[in-house]
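pasting for the record
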Amino acid sequence: MAGADRNARPGRDESESDKATTGRSGVPAGAESGNGTVDAGRVGPEPVERSEDPVSSAEQTKDFEQFRREIDDVEKRIAGEIDPGVRALVVAGSVFALLVSLVLPHAGAARGFDVLLSTDIASTEHIGLPSRVFVWFTVIFAIGCSLLALMTRRWVLAWVAVSGSAVASVFGVLSIWHRQTPGINNYHGAGPGIGLILGAIAVIVLTFHWIRVVWSRTIMQLEAEEQRRLAAAEAEERDRRLLGGES
């Protein structure tokens, strides 16, 4: 009997020790499963979903806006340039013909340079106002601005060249008509010289080709501006939907 009590006592001590250990473990009630094991999935902390960093998103948006502004600047710079192509040879040839016309006789013994500088020979030949305006517009716009437009490929200079050349064309025709019309007191001076006729024809050809170049570039500019406007409207609508939470 004493031996049985000694054998049973250690068992009770062990069970009491297990209960005490379980009580000290701090496991809450209901944490144990039906088979006596602890459900670790329900005891540990729940995983936290990571949200997108707003700082990095703002930086990406800023970089995209800067990249879009750079593209717009490049498009505007390209839109301000011209590409005459084969017409550049025609324009250059017309400018050369105008330079030659200044050396040739304009009316009688007066050459184009005499009309430009208002020398005594021009006064002797009774060079009128239409011829003087024609020569000045030819030198400034048809020759000067045309050369600058060809070298720089700037659309604005091409517009200035075509405007001045158009005015010079009108005064070139008037100059030829003026040399064939009697003056005051029925004065009949020398008729139009080869320099005046060559200059009038060259400036008309130059005006025609400059108009074709400028007009074609204007159509391309209008199309580019329309595309930029549509792209800006689409981007604004997309941003509005994102801010409003729409899909």
